[in-house]
């Protein structure tokens, strides 16, 4: 037999060994990736609200200061509450929360939930939002709470 000739069986066994090593390496690599992404996902679930809470804490501070204030002046108290409310709305907007507009809007099932039908409002009010009973909100353009509205019949 010619010794320069490579034994096909030995060659195949060598290739099988190399493939086994490559497979073990890839399997370990994938397992590490899987564990890492699961940890990242868990961290996101546990701490995803951190940005939101951090943004809201200054409003909590404002409420504490307002409650500690000894003012008896109803006008000053109302103005203080209005200021905190405005700051809260601005903070929510910064987090991607927007109020669903209802005034003079056509009833839209994607954004509005009809809780009452109001007859006798005239043809121009048919299918229009007459009154908003509870404000609705979107988060990054996804509805998180439909606006509860009365609709003209």
Automatic annotation (TrEMBL):
Keywords: Chaperone, Stress response. It comes from the Bacteria. GO terms for molecular function: adenyl-nucleotide exchange factor activity; protein homodimerization activity; protein-folding chaperone binding; unfolded protein binding. The keyword Chaperone applies. InterPro entries: GrpE, GrpE_CC, GrpE_head. One of its GO terms (biological process) is protein folding. Participates actively in the response to hyperosmotic and heat shock by preventing the aggregation of stress-denatured proteins, in association with DnaK and GrpE. It is the nucleotide exchange factor for DnaK and may function as a thermosensor. Unfolded proteins bind initially to DnaJ; upon interaction with the DnaJ-bound protein, DnaK hydrolyzes its bound ATP, resulting in the formation of a stable complex. GrpE releases ADP from DnaK; ATP binding to DnaK triggers the release of the substrate protein, thus completing the reaction cycle. Belongs to the GrpE family. This is Protein GrpE. It comes from Segatella copri.
């Amino acid at each position: 037999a010619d010794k320069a000739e490579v034994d096909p069986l030995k060659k195949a066994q060598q290739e099988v060994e190399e493939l086994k090593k490559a497979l073990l390496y890839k399997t370990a690599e994938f397992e590490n990736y899987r564990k890492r992404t699961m940890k990242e996902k868990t961290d996101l679930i546990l701490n995803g609200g951190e940005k939101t809470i951090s943004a809201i804490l200054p409003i909590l501070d404002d409420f504490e200061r307002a409650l500690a204030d000894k003012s008896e002046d109803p006008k000053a108290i109302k103005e203080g509450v209005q200021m905190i409310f405005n700051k809260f709305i601005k903070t929510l907007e910064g987090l991607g929360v927007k109020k669903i507009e209802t005034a003079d809007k056509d009833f839209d099932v994607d954004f509005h939930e009809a809780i009452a039908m109001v007859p006798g409002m005239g043809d121009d009010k048919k299918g229009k939002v007459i009154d908003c009973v509870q404000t609705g909100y979107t988060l990054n353009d996804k509805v998180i709470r439909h606006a509860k509205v009365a609709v003209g019949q």
